[in-house]
Inverse folding.
């Protein structure tokens, strides 16, 4: 059972790395199995199709990212400080990816949205669910900030959607220019988007 589980994980890891590097469409099952170091037959033991593999990669990646987002946005510090921590975690991840492979990989979900959302309904729906979950996590923090009078937004849900969209868009630019410094302006832009108090008025630690 352990060996079987290891083979599945190897396939998932190889597929995720190759998707981040080259995209999904150009990949073949044989290439994925070769990169994973497993027989081609192992692929179809675990996944009925390449689409099923893509969904598994998405789910596994979101499992890790969801934990990271919840950790960044949790705690006793003020809500804007926690939201800023999410931005810092995102930028650190892009910098680490560039150091590891020489290029900014961007967001797996954003990359797949651009490549697959108009062609694969199951993937499109799953990505929608993930972005909605991200919006929900950010919404809770913005609502807390509004209750404290730290931000001035009429609709926290739509504000959260705009924050997630801005984060995703700037990560896309960082990938396009292969420069994680494209994320440097995120926090100032977020404060402006939320109608936050001026820098001198923002609570200490932000």
């Amino acid at each position: 059972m352990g060996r079987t589980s290891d083979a599945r994980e190897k396939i998932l890891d190889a597929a995720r790395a190759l998707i981040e590097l080259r995209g999904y469409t150009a990949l073949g099952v044989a290439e994925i199995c070769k990169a994973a170091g497993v027989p081609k037959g192992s692929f179809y033991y675990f996944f009925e199709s390449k689409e099923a593999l893509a969904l598994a990669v998405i789910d596994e990646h979101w499992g890790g990212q969801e934990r990271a987002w919840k950790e960044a946005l949790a705690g006793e510090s003020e809500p804007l400080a926690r939201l800023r921590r999410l931005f810092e975690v995102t930028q650190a991840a892009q910098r680490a990816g560039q150091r590891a492979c020489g290029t900014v990989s961007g967001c797996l979900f954003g990359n797949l949205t651009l490549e697959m959302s108009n062609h694969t309904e199951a993937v499109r729906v799953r990505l929608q669910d993930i972005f909605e979950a991200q919006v929900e996590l950010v919404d809770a923090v913005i609502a807390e900030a509004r209750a404290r009078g730290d931000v001035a937004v009429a609709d926290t849900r739509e504000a959260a959607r705009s924050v997630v969209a801005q984060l995703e868009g700037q990560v896309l630019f960082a990938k396009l220019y292969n420069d994680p410094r494209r994320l440097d302006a995120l926090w100032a832009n977020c404060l402006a988007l939320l109608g936050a108090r001026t820098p001198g008025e923002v609570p200490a630690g932000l």
The radius of gyration is 19 Å. The mean pLDDT is 90. Residues 121-147 form the longest helix (27 residues). The CA atoms of residues 51 and 123 lie 8 Å apart.
